[in-house]
Amino acid sequence: MPKPKSRPRRPKPIDLYYWPTPNGQKVSIMLEECGLPYNVIPVNIARGDQFDPAFLKISPNNRMPAIVDRDGPGGRPISVFESGAILQYLGRKTGKFYPANERARVAVDEWLFWQMANLGPKAGEASHFRRYAPEPVPYAQKRFSDEVDRLHGVMDRRLADREYLAGRYSIADMACVGWIRLAERLGETFQTFPHVKRWLDTVRARPAVKRGMGIRIEAAGKVDVMDPKVRAVLFDRRAR
After folding, report:
1. 3-state class percentages of the chain: helix first, strand second, coil last, to nearest 5
2. Which of 14, 16, 125, 157, CA to CA, is 20 to 30 A from 226?
């Protein structure tokens, strides 16, 4: 008698250490786009979960997001920290949204690292000085707001003759969408950046993007950033 066919083994869920920020959303979007099973493990950054010794073993920079893939290379678990590295890892693992062709991959990497080095940090600083500074700092507000405006211009020119940043939809777009949405929430209308607006509407309409950006963490909605204890955790840390 023929041997019964063995059922394909279900992949083990990836542990996603997450908080609903643009950086966290990059990874949840990618997991949704790839159809990978995952568990959301909240990292309450306002409470200081990111400094827990167990989490530091996974993310030594005490930042989320981070993942633990129990079906890692060679079938052994692997942890990955830094959102850009996670996106690249998941792209290689699945063969999706991160091309194997070197020329196409370079284009994706250029815009992924552009986000990591430019759009994310500058948008974060602009948001901080506009929303969280205990008192107005006009120079800082103007400095970072102007830089974000410049970056929107760079992105708009890039998107003038292509649908997505690297031509085809990729991890570069996933990395940027949360930060562009943050600018919109802070009042940016993108009237002078029509290609960015078109791109944002296109990316945000994707079902996987909606799911990845729609993860709700109840505790996140209760954070009072003006609470001195919360501010000490978020903004007053030095090397130990």
Report:
1. 55, 10, 35
2. 16
Q: Where are the beta strands (DSSP E) in the chain?
A: 14-18, 38-42, 66-69, 78-81
Residue 184's pLDDT is 93
For the record, the structure tokens of 21 come out as 């920020």
Determine the Cα–Cα distance for residues 28 and 34; give it in Å rounded to an integer: 10
Dist CA 171 CA 165 (whole Å) = 10
Global pTM value? 0.94
Rounded distance between C-alpha atoms, residue 105 and residue 119, angstroms? 20
- Count CB-CB contacts under 10 A for residue 177: 24
**Domains (range + CATH), the chain:** 14-96+213-235 (3.40.30.10), 102-205 (1.20.1050.10)
Q: Under a CB-based contact definition with an 8 Å cutoff, are residues 17 and 59 in contact?
A: yes
For 85-107, write each residue's pLDDT tens digit: 999 999 999 999 999 999 999 99
